[in-house]
Amino acid sequence: MTETSATTNVIDRLFGALERGDVAAAQACLTEDAVIWHGFDRIRHDRESVGKDWEQLVANFAQRRFVDVHRRPTPDGFVQQHVMSVRTATGILLAWPLCVVVTVRGDRIARIDEYIDRAGHFTPDDLESASSRSAPTGSMTS
User: Fold this and answer.
1) For 45-71, how does the pLDDT look when each residue is reduced to its tens digit (9 = 90+)?
2) Is the whole model's pTM more than 0.85, yes or no?
C-alpha cells in the first residue's frame, strides 16, 4: 500500500484528537475489532481498553503534542516515528520518542504496535521543539 491521503488522514485525525483531548474521536479512527499492542507491557488492547488508556493520558497531561513525525509506507499501512511531548499538571515538560507500526483497513486503523521506552523520557525546551533526533535521558545514541 502506498501512503495515500486517506491513510495519512486517519493517523493525523487520531493524534489530533488525542492532542485536543477528544478520546471518542480518537476511538472513531479505529476499526471495531482494532488491536493496540504496547511493547512496554506486551498486552493486546482492544478499542475499549485503549480508550481508557487514552482517557488517563488526557487526565494526567494538561497538554499533549505529537511532533517530529516521520512516516514510511508498508504494504498494509505505515511505520511512524514521532515524539510525544506532554505538559504535566504541575507544568513540567516531558517527551518520549515513539515508533508505531500501523495497519490500516479501509479508512480506519485495524492495528497499532506501539514501541516506547517509558523510562527514556527527556525534557524538551517546549512542546513543539522536541526532536526524536535528540538523545533521550537514559538511552543510547548511535
Assistant:
1) 999 999 999 999 999 999 999 999 999
2) no
Asked whether residue 34 is assigned to any structural domain, the reply reads yes
CATH of the domain at 79: 3.10.450.50
Q: What angle do CA 20, 25, 31 make, to 5 degrees?
A: 140
Q: Is residue 122 part of a domain?
A: no
For residue 58, give every residue at least 6 positions away whose Cβ sits within 8 Å of its Cβ, in sequence order, or none: 18, 21, 23, 64
User: Which residues form the domain of 21?
Assistant: 5-116
* CA dist list (Å): 14 to 32, 62, 120, 136: 15, 18, 24, 25
Q: What is the DSSP pairing of strand 93-105 with strand 108-116?
A: antiparallel
